[in-house]
Amino acid sequence: MLRERVDQRILHVCRYAFVVFISDRSVEYLVHRCIYKQGKLNIVLKNGEKDIKAVQVRPWALKDQVYYVTGKPLLSDRYSVFIGGVPRTTTAAELAMLLQQTIGDIVYVSLEVDADTKYPKGAAQVVFDSRESYLQAIAMRLITLTTSDQVKEIEIKPYLMDGAQCEMCNISDARYLCPELCCLIYLCEPCWNDVHKRRGLLHHRPMTKTKPGSPMRNISNCITAFPFLNPSMDHLNHNHSGLRSNNHQQLCHCRVREALPLQHLLQQYILQANLPPCHPPFI
């Protein structure tokens, strides 16, 4: 399966493609043929004997989408935050380690991935073990994440759960979450008006979803949300004894940046090895 996306406004800068292989052996072979330089994997596209262009390859292991800590049972996702601006090649474990060192009490991290390519979209859900850590994370708003090739600020916002109950009347379904630190409470519409009017907080803006699983909107800010992932699911059941990185990766996907003749790449470096072919390409 192959998809190429091109920004028509800056064709000479933003050209990249996603390549999804049937077998992880194909990706391992591709990575083996890459040249490692300055912390990056690169491969040269050729037309016969002529070098066309060196492109960067960014492999992604599906197992790196989710990270949870054993010894800390995941009883509820109530203390969840949304993380935006995460570099795409950052693993769930790496994000968990950063937040553990900065805030602490991490229980679970899940990266949002593209439905077609399963490649990270740059957002995550993080669950904390205590309200104190949850409040600290939201109060921080921004955290600096340093990777091998960039330093980037990631944004922290409240995460809006599906199916929450109003925490004032404890009867109605909560339509809103007030994201302000002095509130951070799920409310139905009547309770929202009552609570904020009594406290003189009518300037607060709610976060809400039109339906479960849809993007959540904070009036002036649109935040992408995704369903809560249950780490007990078989295909996501990666058990870790602590917050440490795992170097034994099963490579399943790769991303090729600034790719030009993608068929050449596949033919020369994959079919040559007599390995299972890719899915048919699609745009």
From TrEMBL:
The name under which this protein is listed is: RRM domain-containing protein
> A GO CC term?
neuron projection
Quote any Pfam family the record assigns.
CEBP_ZZ
This protein's UniProt keywords: RNA-binding
Residues annotated as coiled-coil are: none
From the Swiss-Prot or TrEMBL record, what is one GO molecular function term? mRNA regulatory element binding translation repressor activity
Instruction: Tell me which species this is from.
Output: Acanthocheilonema viteae (Filarial nematode worm)
Q: Name one GO biological process term.
A: negative regulation of cytoplasmic translation
